[in-house]
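Quick one before lunch.
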Amino acid sequence: MIRIGTRDSQLAVWQATQVKNLLESLGTPAQLELVKSEGDLDLVTPLYAMGVQGVFTRVLDAALLSNRIDVAVHSMKDVPVQLPEGIVEAAVLERASCNDILVLNPNWQAPDTGFQISAFRSQLSDPETLNGEPGTFPLTIATSSVRRKAQWLNRFPGHTIENIRGNVNTRLRKLSESNWFGAIFAAAGLERIGLRPAGSIDLEWMLPAPAQGAIMITARKGDTAVLRACSRINHTGTAYCVKAERDFLSELMGGCATPISALATIHQNSLHFNGSVVTPDGTEKIEVAETYAIDATVAAGRAAAAKILEKGAGPLIAKMNNEQ
Ligand SMILES: NCc1[nH]cc(CCC(=O)O)c1CC(=O)O
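Model of the PBG complex:
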């Protein structure tokens, strides 16, 4: 019997249940153990200001190391690139949507100043930078992610960003009780639990967090039976992509508030890698877009990091870290 540790939010339990079902479909019985995390208990402090890595993962790490659970299931983007001593990656499930989406506030009051919501909608779903005048109306958008804030302000410099915290259910409620235009969410988080509101807009132009939309299973190092069972539900293509994205992040990372984005996808025999570094105020952005042969994937993330440093990302990251 494999004991699967998970946070107790609806999304976390859904993800852990996926793992349980997959393991059981291959003949390994499993049960869920629900654990509360600091990231869920403190709903006021923005994540980047909590000052530590792994606010969502630490409690599960402790439960693993003290043998109260056998595996932990995480949204992979919440897992620090450096795993604690004694804990290893056991498997990555096939990635769902990696997009960020804008959920519109159903109670937002349109101003009577000629703001064209339909025109703005088509700007938002346009993957390319627009010619015209993007987002000249000063909207307020909610997110507590410095990465989303940076990319939003880079595209819509006149907008205001408000902080919003909590699991997806809490954030949807806060949005509907606010006067904000909308809030940014990971598509995967809402879609998995059937909460993606009709009319939400996929932000194709916004580059996701490394490993967004992927589910990671961790286990104790050397726990051979558990690691073997998990390896059978690993999705190799996803594992390659998220490894490249997290290698890129770990090569560049200086502080936890650095808005670094990355997305790797596999097409036939190549791995396409897109990465960016944007200053938190949105004024400066450096991007890379590279294609690597699939057999070079082990090095793809580091190669892309070297490329973006060549393009001048180093001083930008250093400047942001100094502002912490
Ligand atoms: N940081 C919180 C978090 N961690 C994982 C998800 C959603 C699922 C995913 O991206 O894999 C979310 C919610 C969000 O960003 O809106």
